[in-house]
């Protein structure tokens, strides 16, 4: 065959392949969504507030899978748990990556587990975390959680107006003890590591804010020199990156040092022992760096979300005094007034359990955590483009009856339950914007949904620390309700306030104040015992 003939056949084959790929892409349409403008796409459709609620309202017009295109970036919103489970669980190999954020990379956050790309390193991260936070091992942390909960209520009794700082210290102290064997000392706001955590949370929220940074839409801007006019984003990133390095390195080095000098165990020391036993030698520089960031993810990944959740709980209790009294009555009956609740009491505290579920349901703290696709995919006839931001709208599942009723509960364990459509009458999920723990009790209709099945994420990105998150929140709720009445919620202008939430990297209550006062003389006596024992 002549060279010209070979060239002709080669060109024909290549053209055929291109046409086949093009036909396959064209034969499946993108999911429906708002009409796009030339070049700009849906840039003016992105909601500026109430983002999750707005996406949920769109489901009535476009269905439960919604597509948007904004400045070269593609978004797919999943407004039912069924769609999220189908993609993130059943097709996890395709949907377990995280979107690339140039700004998060510039400030150093992509080294953390939450933002880490899917691959072998992430699997190593998660294997170490599963080893430390499996259901049985998580019980080992109950005692230290109880100790920190006692410190929390003591601090609230001494300085109730500073409740948010006390809550931050509570969760930071738990995470630091588990990760590094570090004992937080001093009053709220005085510990360096807790303050470093809080500062990093602010950096993360700012760096991760959707639409804030032009460099995330036009990555080539990352190569602009920091001194160049308009490159303020780069100057800010350089100014805060050293904080992320301090955040990961300082407590990590502390944990290794105290393990050597005093034999103090921690996630760090136990993980070093595990890894070195597997390789039969000392950690490599690569594994040392991996472990450093895995440990950092323990006290970064959960502290800010748990603080937002507990802040929401306090606001809700102040706004719903009848619910608060019912929960306190159950504690008095089941536990008594001379001690605090323990995890062994949990099965008998049915109203408290319903209350906790309803706090999670009313305002999911992280309602739109993005995944991204590693390749093109077809789902229900729609084409999901490679690299799209895929976001499960857990707020929608919690609030809209039509989204809720299509929920299919799946046990996130090795012994996974078979799926069954939960097709219930909408009357079982009335008034979704009202706080009603009774919806989770038999007398309230025995709602089958447990929000904790989905608020911790989906698939291979599901939070590995769910058991510790559950127990630490249980202790915070029961200790606070045992000791205090929470009343008089006010906004910064002094006006009465109902639960209201701010959008952002996390959804948290808008600024508010409330009165936190001891319930009774027995509560005062219990606080006095705590002060004396401490």
TrEMBL record:
<keyword id="KW-0812">Transmembrane</keyword>
<keyword id="KW-0503">Monooxygenase</keyword>
<feature type="transmembrane region" description="Helical">
    <location>
        <begin position="6"/>
        <end position="22"/>
    </location>
</feature>
<keyword id="KW-0472">Membrane</keyword>
<dbReference type="GO" id="GO:0005506">
    <property type="term" value="F:iron ion binding"/>
</dbReference>
<dbReference type="InterPro" id="IPR036396">
    <property type="entry name" value="Cyt_P450_sf"/>
</dbReference>
<dbReference type="InterPro" id="IPR002401">
    <property type="entry name" value="Cyt_P450_E_grp-I"/>
</dbReference>
<dbReference type="InterPro" id="IPR017972">
    <property type="entry name" value="Cyt_P450_CS"/>
</dbReference>
<comment type="pathway">
    <text>Secondary metabolite biosynthesis.</text>
</comment>
<keyword id="KW-0479">Metal-binding</keyword>
<comment type="similarity">
    <text>Belongs to the cytochrome P450 family.</text>
</comment>
<keyword id="KW-0408">Iron</keyword>
<protein>
    <recommendedName>
        <fullName>Cytochrome P450</fullName>
    </recommendedName>
</protein>
<keyword id="KW-0349">Heme</keyword>
<keyword id="KW-1133">Transmembrane helix</keyword>
<dbReference type="InterPro" id="IPR050364">
    <property type="entry name" value="Cytochrome_P450_fung"/>
</dbReference>
<dbReference type="GO" id="GO:0016020">
    <property type="term" value="C:membrane"/>
</dbReference>
<keyword id="KW-0560">Oxidoreductase</keyword>
<feature type="binding site" description="axial binding residue">
    <location>
        <position position="463"/>
    </location>
    <ligand>
        <name>heme</name>
    </ligand>
</feature>
<dbReference type="GO" id="GO:0004497">
    <property type="term" value="F:monooxygenase activity"/>
</dbReference>
<dbReference type="InterPro" id="IPR001128">
    <property type="entry name" value="Cyt_P450"/>
</dbReference>
<dbReference type="GO" id="GO:0016705">
    <property type="term" value="F:oxidoreductase activity, acting on paired donors, with incorporation or reduction of molecular oxygen"/>
</dbReference>
<dbReference type="Pfam" id="PF00067">
    <property type="entry name" value="p450"/>
</dbReference>
<dbReference type="GO" id="GO:0020037">
    <property type="term" value="F:heme binding"/>
</dbReference>
């Amino acid at each position: 065959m002549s060279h010209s003939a070979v060239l002709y056949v080669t060109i024909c084959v290549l053209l055929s392949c291109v046409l086949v790929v093009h036909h396959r892409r064209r034969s499946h349409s993108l999911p429906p969504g708002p009409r796009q403008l030339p070049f700009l796409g849906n840039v003016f459709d992105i909601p500026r507030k109430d983002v999750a609620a707005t996406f949920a309202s769109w489901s009535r017009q476009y269905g439960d899978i919604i597509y948007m295109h904004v400045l070269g970036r593609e978004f797919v919103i999943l407004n039912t748990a069924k769609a999220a489970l189908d993609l993130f669980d059943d097709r996890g190999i395709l949907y377990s990556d995280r979107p690339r954020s140039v700004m998060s990379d510039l400030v150093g956050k992509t080294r953390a587990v939450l933002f880490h790309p899917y691959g072998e390193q992430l699997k190593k991260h998660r294997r170490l975390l599963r080893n430390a936070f499996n259901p049985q091992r998580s019980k080992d942390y109950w005692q230290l959680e109880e100790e920190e909960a006692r410190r929390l209520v003591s601090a609230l009794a001494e300085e109730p107006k500073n409740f948010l700082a006390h809550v931050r210290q509570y969760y930071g102290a738990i995470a630091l003890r588990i990760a590094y064997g570090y004992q937080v000392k001093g009053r709220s706001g005085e510990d360096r590591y807790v303050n470093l955590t809080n500062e990093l949370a602010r950096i993360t929220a700012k760096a991760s804010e959707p639409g804030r940074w032009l460099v995330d839409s036009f990555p080539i801007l990352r190569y602009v020199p920091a001194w160049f006019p308009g490159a303020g984003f780069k100057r800010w990133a350089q100014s805060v990156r050293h904080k992320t390095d301090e955040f990961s390195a300082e407590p990590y080095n502390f944990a290794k040092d105290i393990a050597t000098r005093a034999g103090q165990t921690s996630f760090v020391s136990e993980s070093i022992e595990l890894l070195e036993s597997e390789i039969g030698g000392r950690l490599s520089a690569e594994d040392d760096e991996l472990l450093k960031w895995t440990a950092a993810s323990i006290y970064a990944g959960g502290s800010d979300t748990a603080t937002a959740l507990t802040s929401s709980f306090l606001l809700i209790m102040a706004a719903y005094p009848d619910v608060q009294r019912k929960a306190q009555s159950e504690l008095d009956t089941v536990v008594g007034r001379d001690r605090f609740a323990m995890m062994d009491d949990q099965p008998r505290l049915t109203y408290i359990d319903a209350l906790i579920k309803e706090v999670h349901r009313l305002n999911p703290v992280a309602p739109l955590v993005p995944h991204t696709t590693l390749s093109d995919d077809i789902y229900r006839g729609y084409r999901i483009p490679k690299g799209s931001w895929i976001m499960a709208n857990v707020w929608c599942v919690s609030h809209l009856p039509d989204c809720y009723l299509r929920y299919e509960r799946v046990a996130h364990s090795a012994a996974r339950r078979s799926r069954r459509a939960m097709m219930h009458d909408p009357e079982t999920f009335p008034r979704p914007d009202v706080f009603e723990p009774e919806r989770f009790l038999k007398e309230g209709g025995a709602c089958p949904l447990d929000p904790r099945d989905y608020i911790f994420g989906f698939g291979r990105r599901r939070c590995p620390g769910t058991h510790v998150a559950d127990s630490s929140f249980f202790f915070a709720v029961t200790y606070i309700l045992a000791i205090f009445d929470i009343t008089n919620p006010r906004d910064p202008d002094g006006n009465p306030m109902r639960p209201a939430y701010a959008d952002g990297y996390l959804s948290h209550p808008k600024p508010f104040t409330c009165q936190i006062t001891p319930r009774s003389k027995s509560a005062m006596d219990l606080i006095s015992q705590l002060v004396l024992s401490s």
